[in-house]
Every structure is written in structure tokens, then in C-alpha cells.
Amino acid sequence: MQYFDFKQFRIYHDRCAMKVGTDGVLLGAWAEIRPGQRVLDIGCGTGLISLMAAQRGAEHCTGIEIDAIAAEQAAENAQASRFSERIDIRHEDILAHQPTTLYDNIISNPPFYLETTHSPDDRRATARHASGLTYEALIVSAARLLLPGGLFQVIIPASAANGFHALCAMNALSLCHRTDVFTKASLAAKRVLLCFRKDPLIQGDVSLVSRESTPGHALDTNSSMPSPVACHADSHESREHLARWIHPVLRDTLILLDGNGQKTVAYTQLTSDFYIDKG
Fold it and tell me: How far is CA 246 from CA 52, 229, 256, 272, in A?
């Protein structure tokens, strides 16, 4: 099918490597988006999340897409919608993105396969594999482009969550909400929705901290609560900074299908503003 209809817009995806899928809809519906915010959609693909954010009241949405063909179709989807004046789609590498004003909210449904075996379709491989846009590069871009106190929200495989959390902590992004997503209650979680807040004590550019570049701070992918790297200050300021990281994190779960394979009430309610009820 060349397009997918939502309640307030239509998404054509026949020229995009990655089609409309559950992950993007979940993230666009779950993410905290407040009216008046400036939103950045990294790796916007079809433009789906940008359109969902605009529908939810974002003042302006910028979608960045490295694939020229996908960016062209995303721009067409945005222009054909009622939200066209509040969406700007750009064919650009996020690493080169230099906005005049930082963003309140950054949302991304990033490449998620870490394996080295790629699809023979180069465009699809770029869209699906984190070797094209690594988690490290995505995180440092979010830290660089967010206003202090701004939100960074993603959906990633559950198996990658702890490592992703650790890298965010190392780059002044503090976890505030985690939702583990289960297809069915009897199955292990396959996806996780994560919301991070940029530490308001960190000003200016944030340099990427990785397992290779930081002796003594190895990335423990099995740790559920990674220790953040101290800020570049004296020991007293560092202790104050670390104290700010200790705060309650909202943790919950979302089950998509019940035992009969029907959408759960929670899933239906979450996406009710977008999915068309087909009875």
C-alpha cells in the first residue's frame, strides 16, 4: 500500500526505505509534547512523528532526514497536511545541523540494528542499522541541540536500553520516564520508550563521552542505573551536580495485544487520536 491514513493526515511511504510502523506511532503518541514547543525530529523518515507532534500542538517541527528521497516524500506529506505551516523537512546530516535557536524537544525513532549484516538495499540498511547513525552520535547531537531542561525522547530495542541510558548519563541527559513495551504479556519486552531531560546545570556544547575516550568509565550495558560522569568543576560543584541526578524516574509498561491478539485498552487509548477506528 502506497499510503497510510491517520485521523488528521495521510502518510505516503512508497518512496521511503522504512514504512509507517508501530514504533513510530507509539513514540509520537507517547512522547511528552507541550503546546508551543519547538520540536526536532531526527531521522524523520516519512515525516510521521513531525506530523504527530504538530497535531499535538507543537509550535514548530523540524524534521531532519539524511536520505534525499525520503526527505522529499516527507516534505510532500507535510505540505499536503493541515499542519504544513508548522513543519519544515530538511535533507541534512544531523551532525551538520546548526539551528539559530535550540530546541525544547528532540524526538527520534533511530536506526536500531547493531549487527554488522546489512540488508542489500543500502537505503533500507541506513534507515535500520545504527552503523549509519550510531547511538553515540545521536545522543551527542541531542545534547548539543537541546535547551537546558529540554526533552530527548526515543524508542529503541529493550536489549539496548541500559547502554543507551549510560551514554545519555555521560552526556548530561537524565532519564525521567521509561516505558517497557510488550507485544503480549507472556513475551519479553521488545522495545522501550525513553524520555531524558537535559541537565540545566550544563551550559554550552557537551562533548561525547564514550567507553573508548574515557578511561575508568567503561560502559556497563548490564547496569540498570549507570553512574553519571562528574561535571567539569571542582569537587564541591561536582557533588552538587551529582545530587541533581538523583530523582524519581517514572517506570511503567505497555502491553499491545491481549491473549486473543486484540489491541489492549491501554494501546487503543494511547493511539486513539491518530489511528482510525475500523470497527
Answer: 32, 13, 31, 34
